[in-house]
Amino acid sequence: MNSALFFLRVARGLVIALTFCLVSAVAARSQQPQQQQPPDTDLAADEIIQILQENPEVLSDAKAEIVSQLQNRGYSVSARDITDQRLFEEIRSDDRVRHVMSDALKQRGFANADQSASQAAPAPTPGGGRASPSPAPTPGEGGTGKRSSEDTGRPSIQEQYPLRNLPAMRDLYTQAVNAPAQLERFGVALFRNSVAAAEKNRDRSPSDVPVGPDYIIGPGDELLVEYWGRTTQRLQLTVDREGRVLLPEAGGVIVAGRTLADAEQIIQRLLTRQFRDITVDVTLGRLRTVRVYVVGDVKNPGAYDISSLSTPLNAIIAAGGPTTTGSYRLVRHIRGKKVVEEVDLYDLMLKGVSSAGVHIDSGDSILVPPAGPQVTVAGAVRRPAIYELHDEKTLDQILDLAGGVPVTGELKNVKVERVEAHQRKEMLNVNLPQNGGPSEAADAFKRIEIRDGDTVTVSPILPYTNQVVYLQGHVFRPGKYPFKPGLKVTDLVSSFSDLLPEPADRAEIVRLHPPDLSPNVIAFNVRDVLDKKTSAPELQPFDTIRVFGRYDADAPKVSIYGEVLRPGEYPLSERMTAVDLVRAAGGFKRSAFTETADLSSYSVVNGEKVEMEHRQVPIGKALEGTPDADVVLKPGDVLTIGQIGGWSDIGGAIAITGEVLHPGRYGIQRSERLSEILKRAGGFTAEAYPYGAILERAQVRELSARSRSELVANLQGQAALGTRTASGAIPKPNQDLINRLKEIPANGRIVIHITPDISQWQNTPFDVEVRPGDSLFIPKRPNFVMVAGQVYSPSAITYAAGKHAGWYLQQAGGPTSIANKKDIFVVKANGSVVGKGSGQWWSGSVTSTTLQPGDTIFVPDKVSGSGMLKNAGLYIQLLSGVAVAASVIRTF
């Protein structure tokens, strides 16, 4: 079996152990007391998996801890055996794994601020230890698990104490504690899996089971007799109640009570007397069944019909296995009033051999008595579980049952918690030689008596590595390195080839000073050490050497913006010039103004304030190599490359459609006017109606859309302040206004006043400047006036020269009973609006306005309400009228 398949079996059978491993991977480094989380705050399985996928460092830690814990328990598992898919399946399928993983991730800050448990500062723990917050990866180590002050409202532990995140500190802050796993009785998994397999293979034929020559034949067995030679025949013979089978030409022969091998010899001898020159072969066909009674502490006691080849173990599996109080060590096989054998199931589970040597006969009984004395073995042993005692009496025998103590267990720290019968609990001290080895410990264990109810706990060795130093940061090979007296920094970093590209000169040694191992920082210059300008610092155990990159060490930077291919910040190298910065930024764009560039320099005056200076750099000449044209940059300098004047106008055009001689899209230059564009388009056609020309601009449309959005927001805000219904919905009148307002398209029209004779208005205030993206539509001359809104017959009325708006209203039947006669307005063909507040252009009422072809009279509805709602209703109807007028003009 390969290691991957082996791990899958182990992981499936040890869900509790896997749960512990997951906790250890992301949270067990912090042993601070955990706040109780309500069950409804657990992260979903998909959320946990997403966090692990987005944070490879956390996922890698989880896998490494799983491998470590399983190897400590004696399983041959490597990191390659644990796939992401396998780990994610456990999180999805097992609620315990998901719950523990959710808590662990929350402790590390991977949750919303309202769901995350707040992290406390280190506090003393019982026994003199110190609790540590779970460390989060720093930017130099990868990952994004660190909580920031923005998430929690206060600085995280790493922000308050940055040195706490050292690898040495993480190792030293890891307490040597055992998993708080709920142990189960040893052997439960065997019967749980065996019963499941028996249920799956319930319909399997007994004839599929191989039978040896020592099988004892009994009534009900079926013999298959085949012979060939001069004559050939195949016989199926069933042993009758008298133990006989009938052979052709030979009569009956008793085979019951004989082995299969003996029966074959007898049958062969009898048949060869009757048939000469034949070969005989006898095999067993269908096996007989026997009835056995399984009683005692089993899950389903009763009578069971099982194969005659079955053993007491098969009978117990058929009955569902022992209960939680049933014995695994003293199963009795009873025939009549005699105990045929006593079976110890631990022989099978621990040694792979079954002590049951007698097959079951009909009428036999299998008795599972109550369990005997039990001992719990926990901690750093290969098989932590609850074990039932039989002949075991000493500590060494108990540890053998648990698979022994792996190399990660501390033999000098074995604790025995004893229950004084019906009185109290007490802790025993296991006295071991101070300088003794494993053999001395084994001798001492033989002298320690174990009793019913004892709990044996083997503590793990200290989790940190002694005599070690750490290399971290901007290096090719970070990690742990062995310490030896006289070790120096140059023994770990011997040259620049050991450093990643662009290292900083700054580096440091973080040293832990005894007796309390408080961290202290010793800075040194990497370049000076490698160039042997200064002596290399000597190291001590648990030192951490940190080498910084240029971007990590507050390196000086310069910036370039404007017309270059890659604007942004760049590290300032030695003697870097403006030309060097331009080249690093990819060079100029085609739009760059290359004659001069603006350079802003900053200087600190007396360490008190910053002063800025602007100067022009002849960047074009500097690129050509002109002496003294280039300048050396200082930290913080900003170089700006300007744009050629008018570059943004390149490619600008206006679209002209409608009644001009040459419609199309025309390129324009800055400050070009409408009259010039119309002349380039050949002027107006004979049917053109310049009075109704529509000039649209994108910027105007954007302003119109923004104004409409603000009105919608105001209407919604007014409803939210006190006019909502009891259900929380916006009242229907308000919602109707909002819906109507959203349906009206934004208007980008600019009102212009032009006539067919271009020379009359050329170079006057009416000759507007055109902009890139504008569109001009010249309609045909219409022969009607449009009457819309609340009139009895909305329609287009044939134009009559000199008639006023009142006359056209009468032609359309006049206003209806729900019309708002006071607010009638006229939308002129050129886009201007005449209303009751437009007295500066006309005298009298709106209905006395003399109309032109293409004008539109709009009679609005009566608007209920007051204040903002009424004004909004009128505004919406005005926008509707303007939209109707524009669509009418475009139609002709």
Can you give a write-up of this model?
This protein is an alpha+beta fold and 892 residues long. Helix 2 packs across helix 4 and helix 2 (15-26) packs parallel to helix 6. It is 28% helix and 22% strand. It starts with a helix and ends with a helix. The chain is elongated, with a radius of gyration of 48 Å. The protein has 25 helices and 35 strands. The strands form 8 sheets. Strands 7-6-10-8-9 form a 5-stranded mixed sheet, with helices on one face. Strands 12-11-15-13-14 form a 5-stranded mixed sheet, covered by helices on one side. A 5-stranded mixed sheet has the order 17-16-20-18-19. The relative contact order is 0.05.
Topology:
Elements: H1 3-13, H2 15-26, H3 45-54, H4 56-72, H5 84-93, H6 95-107, H7 149-152, H8 157-160, H9 167-172, H10 188-200, E1 222-229, E2 233-238, E3 244-247, E4 251-254, H11 260-274, E5 278-284, E6 289-296, E7 302-307, H12 312-318, E8 331-335, E9 338-343, H13 345-351, E10 365-368, E11 374-379, E12 385-388, H14 395-401, E13 409-420, E14 424-429, H15 438-446, E15 455-460, E16 468-473, E17 479-482, H16 489-492, E18 503-513, E19 518-525, H17 526-530, E20 544-549, E21 557-562, E22 568-571, H18 578-584, E23 597-605, E24 609-617, H19 619-624, E25 638-641, E26 653-658, E27 664-667, H20 674-680, E28 694-696, H21 698-723, H22 732-743, E29 749-750, H23 758-761, E30 775-778, E31 784-789, E32 795-798, H24 805-811, E33 825-827, E34 833-834, E35 856-859, H25 868-891
Parallel strand pairs: 6-10, 11-15, 16-20, 21-25, 26-30, 31-35
Antiparallel strand pairs: 1-2, 1-5, 3-4, 6-7, 8-9, 8-10, 11-12, 13-14, 13-15, 16-17, 18-19, 18-20, 21-22, 23-24, 23-25, 26-27, 28-29, 28-30, 31-32, 33-34, 33-35
